[in-house]
Amino acid sequence: MLSARSIKQSTVSLNLKRTFATAYGKTQYTSLSNGITIATESNPDAKSATLGLWVGAGSTSENPYNNGVSGLLNQVIVNSNQAEFNKAGLKFGSNVAKEYTSFFTQGLKGSLPQAIELLNSKVAQAELNAEYVLKQREITAKQLEAFEETNHAGRVFEHLHATAFQNTPLALPTRGTVETVSDLIAQDLEKFHKKNYVAGNTVVVATGDVKHEDVVALVEKKLQIAAGSVPEISAGKFLGSEVRLRDDTLPAAYIAIAHEGEAINSPNYYVAQVAAEIFGSYNGVEPISKNLGTKLSGTVSEFHLADTYNHFSASYKTAGLWGYAAETSNVGNIDDLVHFTLKEWNRLTISISPAEVARGKQLLKNKLLFSLNSPLAVAEDIGSKVVTVGRRASVEEAIAAIEKVDVAAVKKWAGAKLWDQDIAVAGTGQIEGLLDYMRLRNETSMMRW
Amino acid sequence: MATHTSIVKAGDFILRTPLLRSIFVPTSHFFIKQAGYREIGLKLDDLIFDETPVVQKALSRLPAKESYARNFRTLTAAQCAITHHLLPKEQWVKAEEDTPYLLPYLLEVEAEVAEREALDNITV
Amino acid sequence: MLSRRFASSTRGFATKVTAKEFSGKVSTLTVKVNAGSSVASKDGLAHLLSRFNFHNTTPRSALRLTRESELLGGQFESKVDRESITLSAKFLAESLPYYVNALGDVLKSTSFRPHELPESVLPAAKVDAASANACPVFKADELLHALTFRSGLGAPLYYDGVQKISLEDIKEYAAKVYTQSNIEIIATGVNQADLTKFISDSVFAQLPAGESLAAKAAPKTFEGAETRFRSAGQSVAGVAVPVKAADYATYQVLTSYLNSALSTLNVEAKFSQYSQVGLFTIIAKSSDATAVAADIKAAVAQLKAGLDLSAAKALAATELALAEETTGVKAVDVAAVKDFKLGKFNYVAVGDVNNLPFADEL
């Protein structure tokens, strides 16, 4: 085989070991005596200030009977108070995830005092109108119905979690189901709020044109959250399994396959992310998809095996998923798509090359650093990590940890977590060609002498 | 080692070297006359074995007019083969008409393939 | 750090270069070319040229660019809108020289091989156009632009095949727009001195001087027009008003107001701010056409009666500041905005038009 001209001979030298410039901003932390954590990252370039509450109460804090209460509580609080926030010149938004929920305001520089007052009265001290809850319940149920009927990839991803983490809290769909949400009443929301919105479970994050001392002073003075500590949530446990929702009326097949991944605090958190970035994502309509640097994308694009796929390393507090989600209209060749994908995953254990690992690392750095592209994005990163696992790795730490990953680390991790390990499979659409579980499970290793 | 790129490289070397040029050029003219493809209306590039991905790709990039002309020559030659007759002398392809029309496209495609292989096996 | 402007006449290098420094490990390099759909002489020409960017160039093929870019940890893309084609790259900060060269080569040395057009550019362009036009809101937006501006800003954004475009047309257009006076280079996270040095040493300095094709005066606008477009799926009713530069602030606040919870109307507002003129649009959409009819009628009635916008000024200032952070477009000052009353407008009905009102019924 011809060995190629090394890229070092091209116009720019690829010196990957140079140190990076100083960080985007230093995050400052303060813990108050009542248990609230405050985190701030200032950026004097910013023209706005984001202030938000991150509460460690997402769908994992729910049970199968009140599944969706966290999301509905979000909607009720945001929609009933949006006008008042807007009058004060603030944008008010929220987000619900599996392990946390967030309420954030965006405003101009001097907006923090008003923001904290409103967040206190509307979120921390929220008073819920029973009729409004019923009204919002209808709207939310309709949105969930639309999600179930049109967002097939999203639905498959939720089912992947539901089957992989079955009988543990991580299995519950993030925003609930139409059935469970339609049964919620104001009392359920109040109970959930009382149990979970406590001081030990809350992080206040401020980013943008803000000063840490000012934020701490404001929180001490204005934010009254009931004392209390983080409620107990049982861990997520992975179970190799599958769920198939075959529907031949859909135009394509939507599949997701995942191994057990890494938790946020795992020492292999970054190795798993590099491994996912090695295979990356693919979009068949873009001309660049023919030129991507992965063997898998070459095979997929030559034979049109998939329309899109994206590899992920999803990490939660106690567990994670590592795999990919794909959408294909070439439904006769799903078996080929899955076969070639899993054989490529095998290569992570036996024959991944330094160039592929280097590529994955560089692309991961790019992805990580460019995801922090607004004060809100930075706040979300800080808040979600601090409220879930208690700390957030700074940008320099993350880059250093990514730099440390090498071929040996990837092979070791893949040999332990991917090679001949159970998978969780979920699919909908025209998945007749998605072979049975044992066929897929056997593809996770190769017969070698 | 039989890529068109390597053949062109060897050919350029021969044409640059006077001794080799004086041997090979007359020999190749004699060979072409004996082969007789021009007498059934074909050009040299029509004879290239085209059941390979590289040549198929190159053919797909031919301008429409060249493509129609190639197809016409193929049909003419097929008819000659069936009837076991050569074309009348006026219709034989002349030496100056026998241009390597497909060669630039072949070289481009082969360069792309070689570049892809090199980049697939890059060392960092 | 304050953004600094750069203009130099050394070696006749006339491109405007702005570098905004901030402490970070990543950089972006953007080349904004005045070559959007309003500048091109044929419909869809700007879109096809944008899609042709980052294909084979003389010094490096598209494949090589992609692979080298990945190993350096960078990404690039080319976007087209009504006024410009924007080529951008985002990368880890040390790769600046590579990307200066790469972007310069795209402008100067794209090969425009004949086979790339049918193999790569046209299929991607067709998908762009098909997916955009499948969305009735986009369709309404296109029709409102066409009604308001007719040509220029009213030309379709994407290539629809109505006007035949050949490879020669694209090459000619590229030669016309990729000139030093017609491009602006914007960078974040790079050192100003390094950037200007790299640029003046690079292919950018070899581009022809050319002339700026940016709009110099406000185009002619038309009001009181309407059109109807049948399609299956969601129904959309839209109203559009051309906006003079002096009135930008009023319409920005109006847009913020209508999109916020302060307004009880069930419509979406959008303000497209171009360099010499703006277009303000209100859209009502739903899968039920009668609901759309009611929403758009209510909105037009309330706006005709007049609105006090003072409650929304603070929110508008916030939204404009947020937009400036992401796009770099300078926020207009909204302090002086008072109220708004709707005058003449253009109207479009898309979808189940039998159940959507006519302009004179609003």
UniProtKB/TrEMBL annotation, chain A:
<dbReference type="InterPro" id="IPR011765">
    <property type="entry name" value="Pept_M16_N"/>
</dbReference>
<dbReference type="GO" id="GO:0005739">
    <property type="term" value="C:mitochondrion"/>
</dbReference>
<dbReference type="Pfam" id="PF00675">
    <property type="entry name" value="Peptidase_M16"/>
</dbReference>
<protein>
    <submittedName>
        <fullName>Uncharacterized protein</fullName>
    </submittedName>
</protein>
<feature type="domain" description="Peptidase M16 N-terminal">
    <location>
        <begin position="38"/>
        <end position="177"/>
    </location>
</feature>
<feature type="domain" description="Peptidase M16 C-terminal">
    <location>
        <begin position="186"/>
        <end position="364"/>
    </location>
</feature>
<dbReference type="Pfam" id="PF05193">
    <property type="entry name" value="Peptidase_M16_C"/>
</dbReference>
<dbReference type="GO" id="GO:0004222">
    <property type="term" value="F:metalloendopeptidase activity"/>
</dbReference>
<dbReference type="GO" id="GO:0009060">
    <property type="term" value="P:aerobic respiration"/>
</dbReference>
<dbReference type="InterPro" id="IPR007863">
    <property type="entry name" value="Peptidase_M16_C"/>
</dbReference>
<dbReference type="GO" id="GO:0006627">
    <property type="term" value="P:protein processing involved in protein targeting to mitochondrion"/>
</dbReference>
<dbReference type="InterPro" id="IPR050361">
    <property type="entry name" value="MPP/UQCRC_Complex"/>
</dbReference>
<dbReference type="InterPro" id="IPR011249">
    <property type="entry name" value="Metalloenz_LuxS/M16"/>
</dbReference>
<dbReference type="GO" id="GO:0046872">
    <property type="term" value="F:metal ion binding"/>
</dbReference>
TrEMBL record, chain B:
<comment type="function">
    <text>Component of the ubiquinol-cytochrome c oxidoreductase, a multisubunit transmembrane complex that is part of the mitochondrial electron transport chain which drives oxidative phosphorylation.</text>
</comment>
<dbReference type="InterPro" id="IPR003197">
    <property type="entry name" value="QCR7"/>
</dbReference>
<protein>
    <recommendedName>
        <fullName>Cytochrome b-c1 complex subunit 7</fullName>
    </recommendedName>
</protein>
<keyword id="KW-0472">Membrane</keyword>
<keyword id="KW-0249">Electron transport</keyword>
<dbReference type="InterPro" id="IPR036544">
    <property type="entry name" value="QCR7_sf"/>
</dbReference>
<dbReference type="GO" id="GO:0045275">
    <property type="term" value="C:respiratory chain complex III"/>
</dbReference>
<keyword id="KW-0999">Mitochondrion inner membrane</keyword>
<dbReference type="GO" id="GO:0006122">
    <property type="term" value="P:mitochondrial electron transport, ubiquinol to cytochrome c"/>
</dbReference>
<comment type="similarity">
    <text>Belongs to the UQCRB/QCR7 family.</text>
</comment>
<dbReference type="GO" id="GO:0005743">
    <property type="term" value="C:mitochondrial inner membrane"/>
</dbReference>
<keyword id="KW-0496">Mitochondrion</keyword>
<keyword id="KW-0679">Respiratory chain</keyword>
<dbReference type="Pfam" id="PF02271">
    <property type="entry name" value="UCR_14kD"/>
</dbReference>
<keyword id="KW-0813">Transport</keyword>
Automatic annotation (TrEMBL), chain C:
<keyword id="KW-0999">Mitochondrion inner membrane</keyword>
<keyword id="KW-0813">Transport</keyword>
<keyword id="KW-0249">Electron transport</keyword>
<feature type="domain" description="Peptidase M16 C-terminal">
    <location>
        <begin position="164"/>
        <end position="306"/>
    </location>
</feature>
<protein>
    <recommendedName>
        <fullName>Cytochrome b-c1 complex subunit 2, mitochondrial</fullName>
    </recommendedName>
</protein>
<dbReference type="GO" id="GO:0046872">
    <property type="term" value="F:metal ion binding"/>
</dbReference>
<dbReference type="InterPro" id="IPR050361">
    <property type="entry name" value="MPP/UQCRC_Complex"/>
</dbReference>
<dbReference type="InterPro" id="IPR011765">
    <property type="entry name" value="Pept_M16_N"/>
</dbReference>
<dbReference type="InterPro" id="IPR007863">
    <property type="entry name" value="Peptidase_M16_C"/>
</dbReference>
<keyword id="KW-0496">Mitochondrion</keyword>
<dbReference type="GO" id="GO:0005743">
    <property type="term" value="C:mitochondrial inner membrane"/>
</dbReference>
<keyword id="KW-0679">Respiratory chain</keyword>
<keyword id="KW-0472">Membrane</keyword>
<keyword id="KW-0809">Transit peptide</keyword>
<dbReference type="Pfam" id="PF00675">
    <property type="entry name" value="Peptidase_M16"/>
</dbReference>
